[in-house]
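Protocol step 4 of 5: obtain the predicted structure for the target chain.
Materials: sequence only (see below). No template structures provided, no constraints applied. The aim of this step is simply to have a reference model before the mutagenesis design in step 5. Sequence pasted as it appears in the construct record:
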Amino acid sequence: MTPKPVIIAVDGRSGAGKTTLAVELAARLREHHKVSLFHLEDIYPGWNGLAAGIDRYVATVLAPLSQGLAAEWTSWDWERHYDGATNVTLPAEVVIVEGVGAAAHSARPLLDAVVWVESPGEDRRRRALSRDGSTYEPHWDGWAAQEEEWLRSDAVIDAADVRVENPADGSAPADVLRALMYLPSMAAIISPELGARDGLQLRAERIAAAPDAALLFEALYGRSTNAVWLDSSNASALPESPQAAARSRFSILADDAGTFGQSVLHRAGATQVTAGSATVRTTGPFFRWLDSVWGRQAVRAPRGYDGQFTLGWLGYLGYELKRETGGNDVSSPTPDAALLFAGRAVVVDHRERTVWLLALDAPDADAWLREARTAVEVAAGAGGDAAVERSQRTVPEFVSRDSATDYKRKIAAAQHRISEGDTYEVCLTTTLEAPAGGLDSWQSYLDLRRRNPAPFGSYLRFGELAVASTSPERFLRIHSDGGMRAEPIKGTRGRSADTAEDATLKHQLETSLKDRAENIMIVDLLRNDLSHFAVPGSVSVSRLCAIETYATVHQMVSTVDAHLRPGAPRAEAVAAAFPAGSMTGAPKISTMDILDGLEDGPRGIYSGAIGYFSLNAATDLAVVIRTLVINPDGDGGRTLSLGVGGAITADSTADDEYEEIRTKAFGVLSTLGAVFPD
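Step 4 output (structure tokens):
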């Protein structure tokens, strides 16, 4: 008896391409493993024998193989329509069973992974008949009826670990292999394939150009289902603040196309990764999943490149991931996290007026580099901000989750909890919502970045979900060498067109004892968050309560630095600081619990983080504020939402706090032509 094998079932309706997929998958796995392959079509007892064939397969093939024993089974003689010869299938490290019913309910307890293959009905019929000719044609309808009858009583599709929309272009085997790598049951057996990640080679080209980034994004990613633009849209607007200017040096543009492209959505403990035509689902905490795919240095930055992003994952982490970091479990209408893996990307260096094209070496890398080079040249030749401002066709009519009276009542409730000693500071938020109607998320973002440029602007598109953010606040940066930085914002004043009045507003913020107290409390919280994985003694505050000026607001900003302990798990270091203390209050965990009782609904993407997790183990994440989210509402429409909030302390005045959230919302709402709801 050999050791218990890993068994993969490749199931699906007839003609979906299961056989070709299984054969190709076996060939790839044989590079490192002994593999046995069994086809269920060899055991079905006739054209009406699906149910009986499944029973035979489970009893005589799957049961012994799952124990590491040889399987003796009786074949079916399709010419004589009778039982044929006795055959033997030997066990191996990996066993692949393929055919309709391979993952039937009675088989699933014996399987390590289930792959369900799907294709359109007409394609399936054409493929099946072209393969088996006239022999199959008279029986197609009858066999298909058996398949549907079986599927009505067996939830095999829902139980599949990997689902494949088979394009029949030869890409499915590689996609399935990438998807299988995410299954814990497969991790050990596919370790040689996982080890191939260590051999990633980064190709890079430097172009001396300053392209219009909006035109460049439209040219390269305007039609991409999933795409991300991390947009430092105020790169030249902060001459008085060198640190703020440094945050605005690089912009990153990418999608999930190409050989290495993938995307991931996480909801309430379930992670779905899509790799080309294959989608895999696993369960478990998101940050544990993140730790499995990020945190070690897989590539090195090219010579002369000062950026920290060297390809990797980009997207957002939603606020409700707090369930994994000490908060309560609250469900959200948006995914708790959405990321794409970019195996190629464009990085714009605004300071040096250069563009870097980055691509992992792959068969399609040369073609993409040519395409990207041309797009950069065209966008650079456009001159200036070539994206023409268009009038906003839809003016959203927002309603607030809280009326002014309700919000002020919640302020009083928060202050009561402060007086009871349950918390020191409560970052109370509310949500404005409107039907999105025909609002164009892309055009809305272009309008936002013109009116309110920010160092952490971003435009994210994940299918029908769109995020348009003009955030000024860094949540957490971890450099490849382990340097850590958080830059919390607490304290806001609106701008004035009158120079003297604007200076007065700035001075009021700078000298406000209340705002300084809020900021310092969050600084203390972040010092604690970073210390969990920092080198002892490395945590410092290099800037305290500095004032930075943006297009529509003045903000009070501090800087907390630390150095990550060598070998510390980087995903856990991110989790230790998540969500941003500037969006919760202090102490964090008890205050999040208070907020769940005060706020009448989830925050979703708002209050989370947007940024990247790079292949060189670096990350840079912004706090999700000043952000529009457009999300399908489930009824064929779309909902537009904007989160706003402010820090409540014992000294807060309800009228002032309510006016502050109106000030924070103004830059976004006014761009849309909308007003804060009464």
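Step 4 remarks: The chain is about 30% helix and 30% strand. The longest strand covers residues 425-435.
Proceed to step 5.
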